[in-house]
């Protein structure tokens, strides 16, 4: 695990796993490294000699990309470029068998495709049309990965997923942010009129999709991963408030805390993913319904309020 440990990073979730499993603890290694440091990244790759590289690394908060685009350019574009260069050199020097089995999986987002109207879905053939510095930086990183595959025959795979949710998510994202605000009896902000639609994908379903791509995906291909769970932002927030009204009742409904605020610049109206390709070719479908996944997520946050409060201080 290679991570620069920025404000949103947290080792507690991983430590919880490795401390419960001695075998994992023996196999797991952590390296603090920023991908913008090409030399250090190169040395780590040489040291660990990976069979597979999975690039999750990204700055991902749209609001922060609007306020400070430079960190997104550095992490998402330059960081991906450095990792590609280092990985390509490493791959070229592998034995024939290891070279044949090596894979580089790049994790991306549906936001690179821009915004949908009230109908239609994104798929692997959708033209790129990013509308924020964040999505533009991720689109750029996707293009770099595709270019390294075509130019150097580097064995890459790309996935574009919809909005993730689940336990341990940093509370700048909609679901944990709503929970934090509710717990603190603070205003729950919703951009615009709350009609923006997102396709929600539980983190466990996402990980299972990535494992399917690694195990069965065709080199050079892109796979779109969606949760089949389109919800308007206002719907999601109201569901959370209704749940908390029952779980932790107060004098007034948590929905009274909702406040519509000025919309963010370039706010995409709707995202929706057509997962037909990964479903047909790799036999993957999401198994966790949004209703079930949201309840389990809310239960987790309610049971881990101390962690949430600790992390929330970083915002």
Overview of this protein structure:
The chain is an alpha/beta fold. It contains 13 helices and eleven strands. It has helices at residues 12-18, 22-27, 38-48, 62-67, 69-92, 96-101, 133-152, 174-183, 203-216, 233-247, 276-282, 290-303, 305-312; strands spanning 2-3, 31-32, 52-55, 103-109, 156-161, 163-165, 188-191, 197-202, 222-225, 230-232, 258-261. Strands 3-4-5-9 form a four-stranded parallel β-sheet, sandwiched between helices. It has a three-stranded mixed β-sheet with strand order 6-8-10. The two termini are 24 Å apart.
Which helices and strands occur, and which strands form pairs?
Elements: E1 2-3, H1 12-18, H2 22-27, E2 31-32, H3 38-48, E3 52-55, H4 62-67, H5 69-92, H6 96-101, E4 103-109, H7 133-152, E5 156-161, E6 163-165, H8 174-183, E7 188-191, E8 197-202, H9 203-216, E9 222-225, E10 230-232, H10 233-247, E11 258-261, H11 276-282, H12 290-303, H13 305-312
Parallel strand pairs: 1-2, 3-4, 4-5, 5-9, 6-8, 7-11
Antiparallel strand pairs: 8-10
Helix pairs in contact: 3-5, 5-7, 8-10
Integer average pLDDT: 96
Spatial shape: globular
Number of DSSP strand runs: 11
| Secondary-structure class | alpha/beta
């Amino acid at each position: 695990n290679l991570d620069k440990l920025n404000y949103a990073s947290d080792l507690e979730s991983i430590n919880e796993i490795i401390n419960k499993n001695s075998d994992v603890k023996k196999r797991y290694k952590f390296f603090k490294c920023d991908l913008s440091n090409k030399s250090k990244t190169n040395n780590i790759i040489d040291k660990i000699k990976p069979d597979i590289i999975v690039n999750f690394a990204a700055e991902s908060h749209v609001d922060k990309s609007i306020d400070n685009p430079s960190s997104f350019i550095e992490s998402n574009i330059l960081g991906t470029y450095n990792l590609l260069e280092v990985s390509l050199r490493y791959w070229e020097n592998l034995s024939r068998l290891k070279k044949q089995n090596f894979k580089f999986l790049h994790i991306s987002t549906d936001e690179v495709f821009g915004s949908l109207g009230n109908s239609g879905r994104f798929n692997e053939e959708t033209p790129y049309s990013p509308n924020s510095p964040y999505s533009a930086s991720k689109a750029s990183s996707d293009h770099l990965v595709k270019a390294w595959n075509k130019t150097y025959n580097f064995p890459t795979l790309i996935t574009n997923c919809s909005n993730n949710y689940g336990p341990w998510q940093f509370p700048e994202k909609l679901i944990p942010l709503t929970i934090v605000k509710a717990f603190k009896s603070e205003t729950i902000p919703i951009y615009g009129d709350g009609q923006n639609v997102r396709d929600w994908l539980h983190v466990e379903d996402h990980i299972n999709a990535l494992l399917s791509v690694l195990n069965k995906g065709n080199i050079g291909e892109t796979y779109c991963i969606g949760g089949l769970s389109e919800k308007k932002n206002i719907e999601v927030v109201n569901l959370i408030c209704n749940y908390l009204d029952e779980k932790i009742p107060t004098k007034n409904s948590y929905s009274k805390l909702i406040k519509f605020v000025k919309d963010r610049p370039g706010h995409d109206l709707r995202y929706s993913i057509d997962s037909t390709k990964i479903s047909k070719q790799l036999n993957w479908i999401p198994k966790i319904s949004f209703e079930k996944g949201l309840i389990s997520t809310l239960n987790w946050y309610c049971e881990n309020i101390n962690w949430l409060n600790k992390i929330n201080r970083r915002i």
